[in-house]
Amino acid sequence: MGLLEDKVVLVNGGSQGVGAGIVQAAVREGATVVFTGRRAEVGEKLAADTGARFVRADLSDAAQARDSVVQTVDAYGRVDCLVNAAGLTSRGSLLDTTPELFDAHIAINLRAPFFAMQAAVADMVARKAPGTVVNVISSAEHGGQPFLAPYVAAKAGLAGLTRNAAHAHRWDRIRINGLNIGWTDTEGEDATQRAFHGAGDDWLEKAAESQPMGKIGQVDEIADLVVFLLSDRSGVVTGSVIDWDQIVFGGLD
């Protein structure tokens, strides 16, 4: 049996990148999977490839974030596991971030997970059933680079929210954990490197050479850990925000 056999899993932000990897891994491990994304063509292709159910949603709208849970429950009667994997990584420093950019980061990176969790946990509590949530956060929540100011503000908020919600619902046997992923090889990261940092076609090779492990984060490896955290095999762990990175925070040379 797979790790998620007979589980209904919702992956918000699941049409590409880390989210898509999680969708694929959850299906492989036996789950019934629903995932959201903004681009219909991309989402429908992943749905056709995996057998997962695609729900088109703009998670910057809190109502649509909540509705992703409603649609999952309407389709399958419940939601057992929620993954918040959507992320906005556009750049901004303390000095040049506009209110509009700040609000966009809060909307995707913090508000959407908040209201999706609200709806999912409400379903679990109403059914008196255990459940699991994994929030894909970022190692940048520890401080990050100067050009990530609004991103860091939102992701640090999500890390705090993860711990708060886990504590609030531990007696409901709802386990809520987070994963602070580092620099990761995704389509979105490729676009970001080219758009904001003038990267050429060899950026990934150069990035790999600059890292202790000789590579940057891999989507399939992250997805496997998320599936483990969603599953019963992760035992009693809740309220943990795990640093999944090759940076040792606090270490100095």
Automatic annotation (TrEMBL):
Protein name per UniProt: SDR family oxidoreductase
Similarity field: Belongs to the short-chain dehydrogenases/reductases (SDR) family.
CDD domains reported in the protein's UniProt record: SDR_c
Transmembrane feature ranges: none
NCBIfam families named in the record: PRK06198.1
Gene3D superfamilies the UniProt entry points to: NAD(P)-binding Rossmann-like Domain
Domain of life: Bacteria
PANTHER family according to UniProt: 3-OXOACYL-(ACYL-CARRIER-PROTEIN) REDUCTASE (PTHR42879), 3-OXOACYL-[ACYL-CARRIER-PROTEIN] REDUCTASE FABG (PTHR42879:SF2)
